[in-house]
Amino acid sequence: MSSVAQRADPALLAGRLRLVVTRLNRRLRAQAGDALGPSAQSALATVARHGPLPLGELAAHEGVKPPSVTAIVAALQEHGLVTREADASDRRVTRIALSPRGRLWLQRSRGRKVAYLAARLSRLDEDRLRALADAVGILEGLLEDER
Fold first, then answer.
1. CATH for 124
2. Edge-to-edge strand ranges of the sheet holding 53-54
């Protein structure tokens, strides 16, 4: 065996990474609780991150068509997680805002997800935790490169 490390095949690594991220995301969504689907959870987080925004902007952030986001927002509103408010400068525009209940739902959901991950990570030794911290930094850098 050579002392020189072999370069990992980016295509094979990409396939493995995609699969593990997909599975991890599925497990984290399961930790969210309540019966919100992935699209509703994502839209709620987007409203929290970007503040009150018109339906069209929410659709653009989520990468869905306006009729789809309208249905998602209706479900979120039915659960009391968002509110609709008229735009102060243009009354024809409706902005979607996070309700206090929506903020609490997100806090609890995120708390459960972090607790799930923290429990899993606590099983790792210090070397593996450091390696994972390095990998997370690399992934964050890859995402920053897209901006």
1. 1.10.10.10
2. 53-54, 94-98, 82-86
Contact 35, 78 (CB under 8 A): no
- The pLDDT averaged over each successive group of 10 residues in the chain (147 residues) is 69 93 89 80 94 93 93 95 89 92 94 95 97 95 78
* Lookup: tokens for 64: 């869905």
Q: Give per-residue pLDDT as tens, 40-77.
A: 999 999 999 998 999 999 999 999 998 999 999 999 99
Amino acid 4 reads V
**97: nearest Cα among 47, 23, 30, 132:** 47
Adjacent-strand bridge partners of 54: 95
| The pTM of the whole model exceeds 0.85 | no
Does residue 17 form part of some domain? no
Question: In 10 A of CB 6, how many CB atoms?
Answer: 6
**Residue ranges making up the domain that contains 39:** 35-145
Query: CA nearest 80: which of 104, 45, 49, 54?
Result: 104
Take residue 139 and report the two structure tokens written for it. 């992934």
